[in-house]
User: Fold Undecaprenyl-phosphate mannosyltransferase from Pseudovibrio axinellae.
Amino acid sequence: MVSITSIERSEVGSPAGRVTGPAELTIVLPTYNECKNVPIVVELLDKALAGVAWEVIVVDDNSPDGTSQVTADIAQMDPRVRIIQRIGRRGLSGACIEGMLASSSNYVAVMDADLQHDESLLPKMLEALRSQDYDICVASRHVEGGDVGTGLSSIRAWGSNLANTLARDFLKVELSDPMSGFFMLRRDRFVELAPRLSSQGFKIMLDIVASGKGALRVKELPFVFRERQHGESKLDTLVTMDYLGLLVSKIFNDTISVRFLMYSMVGGTGVVVHLIALKILLATFGLQFGLAQLIATFVAMTSNFFLNNRLTYRDRRLRGLVWVRGLLTFYVICSFGILANVGVAELIYTSKPIWWFAGAAGALMGAVWNYVVSNALTWRKG
Assistant:
């Protein structure tokens, strides 16, 4: 077995045994700071896919470590390697969608560039799809012969198992490993489903299968999750909320955007932060209620801004002086959102004095106002 750490970059692009002609298979590698791993992955693909007409599309979110340039250098030696460098937008699902749409192959595969996915499984996945008996082939860590190995910490493994359970129970996705990020599917089926997919989030395969609503014929193959060789994992604890947003969006048949759901969940945490801050200001510092309420409101707004910047708008994340300007605009927007909340609630309560209905309508109006205006001003595109 070839050691993935022993492959030298100078070996990349060797023409020996290369199959020419149009690619039958495209492998999409979404990347961010993977300059050390990309050359190794390309060489491993070359060995694993001997006799197959393949190409690899690296979709890089403008990595500061020079991943795009490293890939471009490889492409100069090997025409099977392509690079899509994304500037001003980020996110694993969006990168995967762009890469698959950029392909003209009959089959497209998605795998991580961090060396944790076993590339030797690709020929078996391709064989399964060539049989025309399946639309998508998923590499599973939870069927017989598969294993999470040492690639996941105990906490991440527990979270992955919980996410799998939620996907099966709420989305009726009959997969042993719906959180897998390693899969291959027929490109024509992907194109059919692409308009229903969310460019946000990290679990594109789950989105694809859930959007197929049981129509996709699925084959699962076992694989062992390997340990990352270089770089650091891009997944943090906030991905949990990101995943829950996708889950709820699919439950409601994509009638509510994932981003709005993320924004609303962050708003829910803001209520808790507000109450905790209010209690501390009243009980510990003995402030008057009005002043304590005002300070607690700004504490909650600051918390919401921080979480939205980290999670909801992670693909448009603000930094430096732009972060400060964004925070100030967010304060102003939320202040007007409070007025919209109270105004709508009072209007409804005057005509129909049902307190809970009026209060809920006001809160919804405030949330929609904050989301729409924040989306347009605070985290505007480009």
